[in-house]
Write a structure and sequence with these properties.
Elements (H helix, E strand, L loop, with lengths): L1 H7 L7 E2 H4 L4 H10 L9 E2 L12 H11 L12 H4 L5 H6 L4
Parallel strand pairs: 1-2
């Protein structure tokens, strides 16, 4: 549930990494996103290098398109600049949202 809530709170045009969602188990965060049936902004989760993680099918292509529609710009090497797009909610924001 915590992982799902953390994905829901990512604003449009920003990303978080799998490790941001669950520092102790980033792979678990990936599995949760792959298996959940809830409508989540899954495209806003990338790997720690600022890349879209490979997955079968059209997922990576669709993820990039969705992020670009939100204004995220990818570099030539396929990465996005985490210093610009990584979203880290401050404790006050989380408190106002009732998430602490």
């Amino acid at each position: 549930d915590r992982i799902v809530e953390r994905v829901r709170e990512i604003p449009r045009g920003f990303v978080r990494t799998y490790a941001d969602l669950d520092p102790a188990a980033p792979r678990l965060a990936g599995r949760v996103l792959a298996t959940t049936h809830e409508a989540l902004p899954w495209q806003r989760v990338v790997n720690a290098q600022g890349r879209i993680s490979p997955r079968p099918g059209h997922g990576p292509h669709v993820q990039r398109l969705l992020l670009e529609e939100e204004g995220v710009v990818f570099r030539q090497d396929g990465r996005l600049d985490l210093s610009q797009y990584l979203w880290q909610p401050d404790p006050e924001w989380r408190r106002r949202k009732g998430l602490l």
